[in-house]
């Protein structure tokens, strides 16, 4: 019996690699003769660069950039020398994990460090740039990134706007000639995990602002600022880019990239599925085990479990998803090809305790799934 184990990370508790190893251990505890192949996955957010590095043998390049609040930090991206290709996770410069929870403030948090990472890759002769959007603590429309790349974003007096979401309302003039010049000969591929537009109820601010530290008052101010930014960016681009799929990803960095280069936007999970030859591996297995921190409506927009399930459905392979929590109706998830969803949480507790016990809870759930398989007499030697 062969299991393909291909989870995403469980944010705040386990990387995709750690989760996959826990699943494999739990399976072997009950079915020691089972064959397991582990392929940690990502959806365009954190962990994407590592997945690509492992399957294509890239190297890690370290550099110093500014974190979301302007502090100098050690960061990194993945580099493929032969192809002159860089894979940059924007979260490495403006990720939610880079600052303490009490420091979260989208009015101040900036994506400036993302532009610094891109500049470093360009200095190495980058010809292809893959940017993974996800996991950010910023809601600045990518203005910080644009500034680091040389864009001139000024107010009515010709002064540079403030960093962070606070500067969005201040923009009166936008000169994108410098970043466009830098990016003109580079093939840019943008991997996103959500298809959100920039504005409105399903946009960057309304959907993700609160988890980045925004109060209700901040949300109103940020949305108004984003509306101003969208109008200026649409004018600068010569077309309405703020409504495009992925424009709201990473606090609006997606929109900024639409404005400065002819980027190709691809679902992160779909890109990795193709790069890692997942379909062929699904054909050869008996069960697919996957998972993520939370399964909800957004999971249908390109998250790992659903992306995997849609392929497995073509071959009639059962897909078992182990999740930290499951929200809303699950019928659409089942229709996508997921056979069963197991919530690994065993008791109500503090968030800290839940995160600390995630590995044990995952192991418990997978072990019990394996016991059901064994009881049904489906084990194959």
List keywords for this structure.
381 residues; alpha/beta; Rossmann fold; Glycerate kinase, domain 2; 2 domains; 6-stranded mixed beta sheet; 5-stranded parallel beta sheet; 38% helix
Distance between the termini: 7 Å
Q: Could you report the average pLDDT, rounded to the nearest whole number?
A: 91
Largest sheet: 6 strands, mixed
Determine Rg (CA atoms, Å): 21 Å
Count of helical segments? 15
Uncertain runs: none
State the secondary-structure class.
alpha/beta
DSSP, total strands: 13
- Specify the helix fraction band: 25-40%
**CATH architecture tag of the largest domain:** Alpha-Beta Complex
CATH superfamily caption of the largest domain = Glycerate kinase, domain 2
Strand portion, in percent? 15-25%
Return the string of H and E elements: EHEHEEEHHEHEEHEHHHEHHEHEHEHH
Helices and strands, with pairings:
Layout: E1 2-5, H1 16-30, E2 35-38, H2 48-56, E3 59-66, E4 72-80, E5 85-89, H3 91-94, H4 112-123, E6 128-132, H5 143-148, E7 152-154, E8 173-175, H6 177-183, E9 187-192, H7 204-208, H8 216-237, H9 253-260, E10 264-267, H10 268-275, H11 278-283, E11 287-295, H12 304-314, E12 319-326, H13 331-336, E13 340-343, H14 351-356, H15 358-375
Parallel strand pairs: 1-2, 1-11, 5-6, 6-9, 9-10, 11-12, 12-13
Antiparallel strand pairs: 3-4, 4-5, 7-8
Helix pairs in contact: 1-15, 8-9
Short structural summary:
The chain has helices at residues 16-30, 48-56, 91-94, 112-123, 143-148, 177-183, 204-208, 216-237, 253-260, 268-275, 278-283, 304-314, 331-336, 351-356, 358-375, and strands at residues 2-5, 35-38, 59-66, 72-80, 85-89, 128-132, 152-154, 173-175, 187-192, 264-267, 287-295, 319-326, 340-343.
């Amino acid at each position: 019996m062969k299991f393909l184990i291909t989870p995403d990370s469980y944010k705040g508790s386990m990387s995709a690699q750690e989760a996959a190893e826990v699943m494999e251990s739990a399976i072997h505890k009950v079915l020691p003769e089972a064959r397991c192949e582990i392929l940690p996955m990502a959806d365009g957010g954190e962990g994407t660069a590592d997945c690509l590095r492992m399957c294509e043998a890239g190297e890690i390049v370290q550099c110093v950039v500014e974190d979301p609040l302007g502090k100098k930090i050690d960061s990194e991206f993945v580099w493929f020398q032969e192809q002159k290709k860089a894979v940059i996770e924007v979260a490495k410069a403006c990720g939610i994990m880079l600052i303490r929870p009490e420091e979260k403030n989208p009015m101040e948090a900036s994506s400036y460090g993302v532009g610094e990472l891109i500049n470093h890759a360009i200095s190495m002769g980058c010809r292809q740039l893959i940017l993974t959007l996800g996991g950010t603590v910023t809601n600045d429309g990518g203005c910080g990134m644009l500034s680091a790349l040389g864009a001139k974003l000024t107010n009515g007096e010709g002064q540079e706007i403030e960093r962070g979401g606070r500067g969005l309302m201040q923009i009166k003039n936008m000169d994108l000639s410098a970043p466009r010049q830098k990016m003109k000969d580079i093939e840019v591929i943008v991997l996103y995990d959500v298809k959100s537009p920039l504005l409105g109820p399903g946009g960057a601010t309304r959907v993700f602002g609160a988890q980045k530290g925004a109060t209700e008052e901040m949300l109103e101010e940020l949305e108004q600022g984003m509306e101003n930014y969208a109008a200026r960016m649409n004018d600068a681009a010569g077309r309405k880019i703020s409504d495009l799929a992925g424009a709201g990803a990473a606090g609006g960095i997606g929109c900024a990239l639409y404005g400065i280069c002819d980027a190709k936007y691809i679902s992160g999970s779909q890109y990795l599925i193709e790069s890692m030859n997942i379909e062929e591996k699904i054909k050869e297995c008996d069960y697919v085990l996957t998972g993520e921190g939370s399964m909800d409506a957004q999971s249908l927009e390109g998250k790992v479990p659903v992306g995997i399930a849609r392929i497995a459905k073509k071959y009639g392979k059962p897909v078992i998803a182990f999740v930290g929590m499951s929200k809303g109706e699950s019928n659409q998830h089942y229709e996508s090809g997921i056979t069963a969803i197991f919530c690994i949480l065993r008791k109500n507790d503090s968030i800290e305790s839940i995160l600390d016990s995630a590995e044990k809870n995952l192991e418990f759930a997978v072990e019990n799934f394996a016991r059901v398989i064994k009881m049904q007499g489906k084990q194959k030697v």
